[in-house]
Design the sequence.
């Protein structure tokens, strides 16, 4: 059985603009989450699903799969499950 970690990072945050690009101690939130997930030994792969070109063009290492999320799944009211199911189908 393969165990995947999904990191969902939508570009246009509603309340806090560019939230996922904010840096804490020089590391943005998506990179920080990815680094944490890499420490979990039983994960087979880490999947980042995003509509943000910044993260699609970033290097997270070989164990990370980046998936471009379609705009219809990047709306304010789109459930996270829809983005994850899109990633599984991919």
Sequence:
């Amino acid at each position: 059985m393969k165990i995947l970690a999904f990191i969902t990072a939508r570009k246009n945050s509603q309340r806090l603009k560019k939230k996922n690009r904010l840096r804490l101690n020089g590391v943005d939130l998506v990179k920080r989450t990815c680094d944490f997930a890499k420490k979990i030994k039983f994960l087979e792969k880490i999947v980042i699903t995003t509509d943000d070109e910044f993260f699609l063009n970033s290097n997270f290492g070989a164990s990370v799969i980046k998936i471009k999320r379609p705009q219809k799944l990047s709306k304010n009211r789109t459930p996270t499950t829809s983005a994850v199911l899109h990633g599984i189908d991919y």
